[in-house]
Design brief:
α1 packs antiparallel against α2, α2 crosses α4 and α8 runs parallel beside α21. Helices cover about 50% and strands about 20% of the residues. The protein is built from 22 helices and 22 strands. The two termini are about 30 Å apart.
Amino acid sequence: MRVPLSAVLNFRSLLVAVAVVGLAAGALSWIAGRPDWAGWIWAAGTVPVLVALIGEIVVSLSRGQVGLDLVAALSMTAALAFGEPLAGNVVALMYAGGQLLEAYAERRAQREMTALLGRVARTAMRRTGETLEEVPIEELVVGDRILVRHGEVAAVDGVLASVDALVDQSALTGESVPVGKKAGDEILSGSTNVGDAFELDTSRPAAESTYANIVRLVEQARESKAPSVRIADRYAIWFLLLTLVIAGVAWWASGDRIRALAVLVVATPCPLILALPVAIISGMSRAAKFGVLIKSGGAIEALAKVRTAILDKTGTLTFGQATISDIRTIEGWNGDEMLRLAASLDQASNHVVAEALVADARRRGLQLSRPTKVSEQAGTGVSGIVDGRALIIGGSRFVRDRSRSGDPYALRQGVPEGAAVVAVSVDGAVVGIIVLADRIRPDAPAMLAAFREAGIERVVLASGDRQDVVATIARQLGIAEAHGELDPAAKVAVVGKERERATVMMVGDGVNDAPALASADVGVAMGARGSAASSESADIVLLVDRLDNLTMAVRVAHRTRRIAMQSVLVGLGLSVAAMVIAAFGYLPPVAGALTQEAIDIAVILNALRALR
């Protein structure tokens, strides 16, 4: 279990205080003419920091991790052993101060993610008849109507029941400009009411709402182990060996062990210890501001290396919901009336197309009637009575074979490839067709262009939908390779094949995408409202279904990695230069510790640039 950051700050503040008190008290003793007391006091200010550091090293070694904290421990130990307690105390202060600075920088970098957790609504004003009662959000059920007052946060996902509303969605999307909503629009939990009070019809229980999912994901990310810094792992052992070689050669060549001590001091601590975690956490925080939750440091590093993107179609490039794109009727029939009758009958069906017809009819303000004598042939069509008229709706062949006159196929000329067609027959005569399509997201072309600008060279479309539908979407978006009719195992196979060529990012939103998300180098789940399985399997979760946020995350990943590498390489270069100067005797231990602290502060400040 990860130690809370507040506890880390308190402990490191205590170590800094011990080192400061030791340094100050020792200096006063020196001034008072008691250098023997001063030496003991400086040693006393060093030992607690050294003991804490050794404890951290033991824990790291037990996990199989070798870090540059060893150099800090060696320098403090050598200072005490060589009779240089002042140098040891200065190193202890510099090291403890650097660790405290890192903790403060980490807290600053985590601010965006932590802010999410402070916005959780606990109660809601539920309307019961003509009265309002404040209830815990756990008691809300689908269909409850709640009042969201000015300044309050929507506790659940719902549909706006008032005429209009003005909400601040910045916690979800990163947009600072309030968004206007109209009656019937969806309002996501976590949105703040910045206008007049409005009423909301609950569409999901609190535990399943968008913001509850976001909070769970953020808490998981915070409770997981600290970001793995693989770049540091690759360089740490080599830098440790280089430090020991330079220190050893300096001692051997000069016969002065203080030069070896100075080399160790200058190498303590190292930019690798401080700069990388700060840069990576800053990048994760910056991405969170755009509504993108990156779960680990390894994920942000991998995202910067992605060269191939595999995209699911439904819910990713398209909205994942069929909507009416065209209504065609025979002469004498009105399109809205035909849709009203068809949607009235489809209220008795739970088929996805039926739900789309009902939802679209309600959006148009059509008054639906109660159907009777309903008979459904699963996946093919429905028949029944609406307002005293016999209706048959469904696939073209199903409706044609059950009608006395008319042919739906005669109305299908020019229907786009891959669109779904619902035929409608009234009192035995075919009266029209309704064309439905899963619309391409308007931001999809811009996302693909931004991907290419960010260095993603290859885009592959992978979907469980029909091959003709997938091919049509790919052609419209200029995607060269498209795979349709894929089951979860087949998607995993596509990911595995692409990984042989380059680092792969998989983007999806459904349960069937979870195995592919887990098998990719970087798995991205679309929206916290997507399936729990996909969000759990993914390395990155888009908190809202906006593709431009993903492109921003890719840019953030590239910039974060670039800043991290700058901090490491510049910091290491300066440290090596200082070690060489110390090896030649031009930089005594105390001055070397101060020099290294200046280097550390510089690389931490540079790493914090990833927040901007």
